[in-house]
């Protein structure tokens, strides 16, 4: 049995995204590839540091706003997130 020690996702700004992550609710997530989003959220949650997210298939990008990053989730939409200071290696 494997026990995860580090939880990357601490909170959500968007309640629809939080509901999707916590209980699989797809309400109000129209036009988004939910399967891809589920994979991305799992990657974010399991990452121990920033370099764990630099996977070509995730289309990881830095943003203009310092400390924020984005991952393309399809149809011109991006999942924008920031990391805790200790995780930015």
What would you say about this model in short?
The protein is of the alpha+beta class and 89 residues long.
What does this structure look like?
- With 89 residues, the protein is an alpha+beta fold.
- It has one domain (15-87): 2-Layer Sandwich (YaeB-like fold), CATH 3.30.2310.
- Helices cover 25% and strands 18% of the residues.
- It is built from two helices and three strands.
- The chain has helices spanning 15-23, 34-46, and strands at residues 60-62, 68-74, 77-82.
- The chain has a three-stranded antiparallel beta sheet with strand order 1-2-3, with helices on one face.
- Strand 1 (60-62) and strand 2 form a beta hairpin.
- The longest helix has 13 residues, at 34-46.
- The radius of gyration is 13 Å and the shape is globular.
- Mean pLDDT is 75; it is low at 1-5.
Which characteristics define this entry?
three-stranded antiparallel β-sheet, 2 helices, disordered N terminus, 89 residues, YaeB-like fold, 25% helix, alpha+beta
């Amino acid at each position: 049995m494997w026990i995860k020690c580090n939880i990357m996702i601490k909170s959500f700004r968007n309640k629809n995204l939080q509901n999707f992550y916590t209980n699989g609710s797809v309400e109000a997530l129209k036009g988004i590839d939910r399967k891809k989003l589920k994979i991305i959220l799992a990657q974010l949650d399991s990452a121990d540091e920033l370099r764990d997210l630099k996977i070509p298939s995730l289309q990881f990008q830095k943003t203009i706003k310092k400390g924020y990053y984005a991952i393309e989730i399809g149809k011109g939409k991006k999942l924008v997130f920031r990391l805790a200071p200790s995780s930015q290696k």
